[in-house]
Amino acid sequence: MARTRLYRNGRLEAEDFPLDDISEHLRDTGAVVWLDLTDPDEADFDRVQEEFGLHRLAIEDASSPHERPKLSHYVAHQYFNAYATDFDPEDGDLAVHEVAAFVMKQALITVHAGDFDMGAVVARWDETAELAGHGVPYLAHGLLDVIVDQQFDAVQALDEALEALEDTLFEETPQAIRQVQQRSFRLRKSLGRLRKVGLPMRELVNGLMRSRVCVIDDEMMPYYHDLYDHVLRVAEFTESLRDFVGTILESNLSVQGNRMNNIMKKVTSWAAIVAVPTAVTGYYGQNLPFPGFEKHAGLVSSTVLIVVLSVGLYVTFKRKDWL
């Protein structure tokens, strides 16, 4: 499935034209072409390679899934790989969508799977149509701006999920305890995944800003500086949340340890309380005469001893905050 656009002198002239017309359009130095490939096969890559003269290694990277975010420089073009993100606050999972792009002087080729919403990128281009005269740098900026915005939305959603998890950290219910344990590890996994796809974006955007193939003019450069600032915010936010997750896990362990100590204190205190009547009844249960033996006074005195000593121990433990 392919999608095309033609910009000429900063204006959108055509959409969804055949791939065979691309070479004819590129003969005009004022024309810029965008080609989008969704779930391409080997034949599609061969056709694009022949049409644009793309490097074989770049084609291999675009056709291989799960490549790390990077920017590669070739003689006639540049290739970069990036990941859009989508965070689900309900289950705490992070979905990533790989996007590859070939950057040339007059063309931008994007390659992605069907799970990536290219419509958001097209909408971003249409919102900033006044910048279309800058050519390929305008198209590449719109693509990366959507990707970085999605990463920033994901890291913000992760921050909110971690703050909500922190609120349940000191709840005593068994359900809350299990929720903190399970969700904290799931959020840490999602954060680690976001960190892997977000941190390399600094080198990617910085490399594009110094590109010799796709030269960014003075009017477009502030937009790339703003994009680079967003990338840094995502990286810094991710690092701070990484420490936040570690703090939550350590706090959870401390809370669990304190909760266990409290339980042990209570169990020990009740064991001591139960031991007193056991000792008294054991003493009075000897097969030997004792004060009040076979008399009503013996029953009364043993009962009084049990009650008085048990209550005394309970009050003592309560004052020490052991119960």
Automatic annotation (TrEMBL):
Main location: membrane
Compartment(s) where it occurs, according to its Swiss-Prot or TrEMBL record: Cell membrane
CDD domains reported in the protein's UniProt record: TmCorA-like (cd12822)
Keyword check for Membrane: yes
Record's bilayer topology term: Multi-pass membrane protein
Pfam family, one: CorA
Alphabetical keyword list: Cell membrane, Membrane, Transmembrane, Transmembrane helix, Transport
Organism: Dactylosporangium fulvum
Family label: Belongs to the CorA metal ion transporter (MIT) (TC 1.A.35) family.
Top-level taxon: Bacteria
Protein name stated in the entry: Magnesium transporter CorA family protein
Keyword flag Transport: yes
Transmembrane segments: 267-285, 297-317
Signal sequence segment: none
Xref: InterPro entries: CorA_cytoplasmic_dom (IPR045861), CorA_TM1_TM2 (IPR045863), MgTranspt_CorA/ZnTranspt_ZntB (IPR002523)
